[in-house]
Design goal:
Blueprint lengths: L15 E3 L6 E3 L4 H4 L4 H4 L13 E2 L11 H10 L13 H11 L6 E4 L2 H12 L5 E6 L4 H8 L3 E6 L8 H11 L3 E5 L13 H8 L3 E5 L20 E6 L12 E4 L2 H7 L10 H12 L1 H22 L5 E3 L6 E6 L4 H12 L1 E2 L1 E2 L9 E5 L3 H15 L1
């Protein structure tokens, strides 16, 4: 049965559209009829977005503080200099083989994507039917909630425990109660930095029947990995990205590792030719120079550890444990929004204000930058808090 259109409200203001032939401005049609055809579950969601104004110290998106090395960029450009009129290979076998060797898996169980976000969407799109439950820790990466709703599923958040530690018992209980189709485990978790305890994924697999999506976007910086479980269960999907530790956020490259037959089904949820020539060349180059990039990751983790120790010496803050390339703090002396603004306006330091949710009340998330960046944060916080 056709649904009736919602007629436009004549009092509703219309957008203006310039007429290129006359230079005059006319009115766009009202949006109500088009919007009436969008699913209510989608319209009720807030889209994923982030404004990122310029700052001397940009520490709000968990990016690598170090650009991809110039000599490696030249190598990428040489590889991708020709053939732009042709589509890239659908699934480049040499790259899949190199990724499989790097992560200790099989090539036909590797999928590549336009960032790991595309693969999150692909996994959920091929698993969720209307009303299916996705169980995830809360707070966690907000894209899971958004995509679950868009796809018609039920998103079931399970609060983290004291100090944002994973509550594995509660996750399992809720997954059983909700008959979860998918369980999401983001470890280290964004935005808290929490990691799963050893053996948690094995226990979740043994006590539930869900597909377990292990989002390891930040695992290069610390914490256990579920890669070893791929050989033991076809219900494990591991997601990785080259955006964080490998410094390729601007080129968007991610991958999923799964049982080959499961990977074949997930591939049906991806768009064809989803990764461009330049990004494919950059991924190959990053793998060839993995030891160099791993050394830079170790620099970031060493900077993080020094920074966290200094943060703990400042008054008016709770500093939460982290294994990622960021740290979550809670401000007790000043409202988080005021602290955020003073860092930015008075010191040119841009961090992430995550205080909008009740769970993260008065919290800010600070990405780990260069040693100079982190010195600037400590100096600024010392001045503001004292």
């Amino acid at each position: 049965m056709n649904r009736p259109f919602t007629r436009a409200d004549p009092a509703q203001p219309a957008h203006s559209l310039p007429d290129p032939s006359t230079g005059t401005v006319g009115a766009l049609p009202h949006a109500a009829e088009g919007l009436s055809l969008i699913k209510p579950a989608v319209r009720s969601q807030t889209g994923y977005s982030l404004s990122s104004p310029r700052a001397r110290h940009k520490l709000n998106q968990n990016e690598s503080p170090y650009d991809f090395p110039d000599e490696l960029k030249r190598e990428v450009f040489e590889q991708a200099a020709e053939g732009w009129q042709r589509y890239p290979e659908f699934a480049p076998p040499d790259l899949l083989k190199a990724l499989a060797e790097h992560y200790g898996w099989v090539a036909d169980g590797v999928l590549v994507g336009n960032g790991s976000n595309e693969l999150i969407q692909a996994v959920l799109s091929v698993t969720l039917a209307a009303g299916d439950a996705v169980v995830a820790p809360s707070p966690t990466f907000s894209l899971y909630r958004l995509l679950t709703s868009v796809l018609g599923g039920r998103y079931v958040p399970v609060p983290l425990g004291r100090g944002f530690a994973y509550d594995v018992e509660r996750l399992i209980d809720e997954a059983i109660r909700q008959e979860a189709r998918v369980i999401v485990l983001n470890s280290p978790n964004n935005p808290t930095g929490s990691v799963l305890p050893e053996g948690a994924v094995e226990r979740i697999l043994s006590e539930t029947g869900a597909l377990v999506v292990c989002d390891e976007a930040y695992q290069d910086f610390g914490g256990p990995t579920a890669l070893g479980l791929l050989a033991r269960s076809s219900r494990v999907v591991v997601l990785r990205t080259f955006s964080k530790a490998l410094g390729l956020a601007g080129l968007r490259f991610g991958l999923a590792l799964a049982h080959p037959e499961v990977a074949r089904e997930i591939a049906k949820g991806k768009l064809p030719y989803n990764v461009n020539l330049v990004t494919l060349a950059a991924a190959r180059t990053a793998l060839r120079h993995a030891p160099l990039l791993a050394a830079r990751t170790r620099e970031v983790t060493a900077t993080r550890d020094r920074f966290v120790e200094r943060l703990r010496g400042l008054p008016g803050l709770t500093v939460f444990p982290t294994a990622a390339n960021f740290v979550l703090i809670r401000s007790h002396q000043l409202p988080a929004k005021e602290l955020f603004l003073r860092l930015y306006e008075n010191h040119g330091i841009l961090v992430r204000d995550v205080s909008g949710s009740a769970e993260l009340a008065e919290c800010l998330r600070i990405s780990i930058g260069t040693p100079d960046d982190m010195d600037a944060v400590i100096t600024a916080l010392t001045e503001i808090l004292r």
